[in-house]
Predict the 3D structure of the following.
Amino acid sequence: MTNLLEAKGLHAAYGETKVLHGIDFAVRQGGVTALLGANGAGKTTALRAICGMVRTSGEISLAGKRIDGTATEDIVRLGVAQVPEGRGTFMELTVEENMRLGAYTRPAREATADFEHMFEYFPRLKERYKQQAGTLSGGEQQMLAIARALLLRPKLLLLDEPSFGLAPLIVQEIFRILARIKQDAGVSILLVEQNASIALEFAEDAYVLETGRIVMSGSSSDIVKDEGIRRSYLGY
Amino acid sequence: MFAGVLHQIMSGIATGGIYASVALALVMIYQATHHVNFAQGEMATFSTYITLTFINAGFPYWVALGTAVVLSFIVGVAIERVLMRPLANAPVLASVGVFIGLLLIVNSLSGWFFDYTIKQFPTPFPDHPMLGGYLSGHELGSTAVTLIVLISVYIFFRFTRLGLAMRAAAFNPVSSRLVGVRVGWMLALGWGLAAAIGAIAGAMVAPVVFLDPNMMAGILLYAFAGALLGGIDNPLGAVIGGFMVGVIENLGGAYLVGTELKLTLALVIIVTVLTIKPTGLMGRKVFSRV
């Protein structure tokens, strides 16, 4: 299988503060890759780097083409959707308007058909369609964020902590739906999670980050078996 | 007495319409940048001179105005791209400095190109009283034009893809970029729209107050009072606030402080709103759940 996304020697910094110190990782075509690690390891920064939201050096390529140094809006147009940290909801706008914005880069008629798909995955969004998005619960906002990202019809979906701040039952529900989406849409996924056990269950490949460096990578099953790694980095 | 009050209210609504459109122009830039563009009035004055130049060159009124509106839009976009863009991450005072500089420069340009003498400005509307004598033809016509502008702006923001993208960019630029909205251009578009609205407001007010380089100075103050009164981050609020200020100004001027001191009413409104209810009557209420 070929790689859809590849990062080589990726450095990233906020002003003077360096966060990533030359990391390599990849997402396989149609696969799910997890980036794991503690708070402050640089997981979110890695996602921001892919979308051109932080200053980087090193190489990032999508389907063989370099995308580092490209503006965020143009990377998005190449088929990279991100569910950002904190879900990125447009609080003041309605659920409908949030979804329309997800489909902003696509012809309106095509997108309207996709709305129905989203309602199949997330029936609750249909109930809340005309409601201000800021009034949704955390789980509903997460669903809205995923729907917004999918409406872009991405090749690559970047998910930043979809489990953050949600009750365990809701987290399970969201990952069940994500598994369905992966099958239906054939989208490749890069998942950032602190909840390592659920992430390793969902992903095929995983990288473990510590303070901006990769300390281990491999198939999820190998990482799950490695008790040392699990104890020292994943905390379970 | 009653007829007199009614008359004051009606012409208050007519001038209020002008304040409402300038207030809307202020809100358009405020929403996206959280800065009040002090130069908005001077830009509108300059646009009005452009309209007059076209009229004097023999173009029909509406063609002249339409051309000036389009040119103003382009210049508004250009100002954002060239002057404001480099300041995107600069401290507030830097932006304020640029606004004041822009005000002085545009004001001087008006005087330099078109001289400082007070000029008459034509109205396209019939010159006789209407609605049983309560409103002049120009007052009625300019109110209608203002309403058409306001409704078009509302429809644009509420029902079009571009309008939605502009609102999104103002509320949440980071998420907007992540769905592919070109946030920088949305901002420039906001400046263009504000300048275009200013051009129309200028042409509607000039027949009443006459055209000179400082024509908009007082009007900007009323418009700012209106925007604050309605809620400076709420376009609809700003429009309603603009109309209210127009009525308050006319009634206060006629029965309270006299026409000489009318402008102080604007200051009174500004200070009162800022001390009692800084968000204005219809300031944005955001529900958020964490």
About this structure: Residues 168-185 of chain A form the longest helix (18 residues). The CA atoms of residues 50 and 140 of chain A lie 26 Å apart. The beta strands of chain A are 3-14, 17-28, 32-36, 55-62, 65-66, 80-83, 156-160, 188-193, 205-210, 213-219.
